[in-house]
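=== Structure Prediction Worksheet ===
Name of assembly: unnamed complex
Input type: mixed (protein and possibly other molecules)
Chain count: two
Listed entries:
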Amino acid sequence: MPNELHIKDLRVEVKGQEILKGVNLTIQPGTVHAVMGPNGSGKSTLAYAIAGHPNYVVTGGEVIYKGENILELDPAERSKLGIFLAFQYPVAVPGVTVANFLRAALNAHRAQPNVDPKETAIPMAQFRKQIKAAMQDLSMDDGFARRYLNEGFSGGEKKRLEILQMSMLQPSMAVMDETDSGLDIDALRVVSEGVNRLLNPDMGVLVITHYQRLLNYIKPQFVSVMMEGRIVRSGGPELALELEERGYDWIKEEVVGSLN
Amino acid sequence: MAVLTNGSTSPLGTLGTLSVAQVLEHSQAANEPAWLTEMRGAAWSAFQQMEAPKWRRTRLDELHLETLQLAAHPHAPELLGADKAAEQGAIFVPLRDALTTHADLIGSKMGQGVPPLANRYSALRAALWQNGTFLYVPRNVELEAPLHIRYTLPAGEQAHFPYTLVIVEANARVSLIEEHISVESATATLTGATTELFIGAGAAIRYASIQQQNRTTYHIGGQVITLDRDASGEWVSFGLGGKVQHIEAEARMQGDGSRIEWHGATFATEQQNLVIVPWLRHIGTATESHLDFKTVVADQGYSVFDGMIKIEHDSHATSTRLEEHAIHLTPNSRSDSIPGLMIDTNDVAKAGHASTSGQVDEEQIFYMQARGINPADAKRLIVMGFFETALSAIPHEITREQVAAHIEGRI
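=== Predicted Assembly ===
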């Protein structure tokens, strides 16, 4: 299948230290794949490496998407290819409104080589209509679009904004990095419903989470466990429930045991 | 043939050959009031005797004052909104015209804000101003639409010294934009602008000062807002154009309970050297000030923010904060930030200053890239966002959009 995300033996260093030590993972379109693991196991590194953060240095492996090794693309090109990272810690940009930012992002996606960007830019009226509808779906009031990007946002507002962006950009491969962190139960429901509404047979979703809680709302078909920079277990949704019940230590012992 | 004032035709030559007697003579020939003739004479005499001020960070070594010719005609500024202002009893006219109708009122204030003899350049401006703007807003008059002054140094002229005098009486309200532009010239040109704004008790002003001159212009200005009891000012200063800018600006919280909210932006690119010296001077009781300056430098641009909080001895319970933040877009650009605090009393409610300097935040760029925006566009968005607080303080939408477009085009 061309639209699967295929991660092959991915090795990534951060500040000279190897964090991912050969990750293999495939995410099929139309599926939700959860990667769970204890703190420090490399889950967020995987998310950043897929998105192309410059501090995450790839030392080996490939990530194939739509026939391209996306590791050779800059982050903006990866986004235009349909990859979307919902940030665990969305970045504040003072003075840039949510609306302006989203319009710039949409126009970047609509731009064509050798065509005047003015011709491909989204008409203002269409943009307004689209953002309004998307905000309503996420129970955001109109004033939200005029606020500065993530500046002074609560945890819930930040995550909602991530989903709003996802809904506007319509990615075919979404990576959700600890989307449940910092959310109370009501915000978690709104955000999850937002994600679920976007699911479609052509979109793959990689959900990165420490806790099983989020998976009650965004239901995965596949669950993988990451530990010390490797995928050490894969299974169905029952694996997440087992982790919820038993924690991570038993897997650790089994992994260490198998190595011995 | 250069003339100093309307009605006078005597040749003046260059600033280097102009005598005090000539200055007096021209003032008299133009039927100026005696106090003005005297002020000009004293200022010119001071100019001739004074040493150049030691502005170490302002590159004035290539400016040869003595060779400059005064503008041949005392050009009136472009004034927008005068008719509407007049309907409500306000006066918004070229200063030279006002001199024939409101000489005493002008005489009671001129030089009270920006002291003519403060330094060689203030003396030069006080001695040789030819025209400018007079704005008088009577008590309780609230002007809805912003007034707009546009000073242009015309083609072929080398120097002009526009003078803006603003008197806002008690409980009146006004918005004012003062814009400086110039045409490109083969040789160096000089704009020496003086602006004095006197804001009466309980009155309010929104004032934008926008310097957008061309790359041959030296802009050496002095601006003072004096705030009476419970008066309030919202001030925004843009330093964008010119070859070299040196503006000494001051918000003077004279009356009890007066306050200023001051935003500013400097954008220095190419070889520009843009210096702003903003002072917050607290004199009254329970006065408040906030100065928030944003600086962006690129290419070989060099900006200086030499800000000062001055809390005078007889003041009480001042509350003040001064901050400046700078972004460097290129490694060869430079910005100096020298925030200072001089407190001559023990009775201060709150006083602080802060300054930061750095490149565009990599995390912000990555966040935008992750949404498909290329790094150059991301930088542009971030820098425009950085200037947003200053831009949004411009009290006129069209001007705001023009300034924003000008900045965006240069990033």
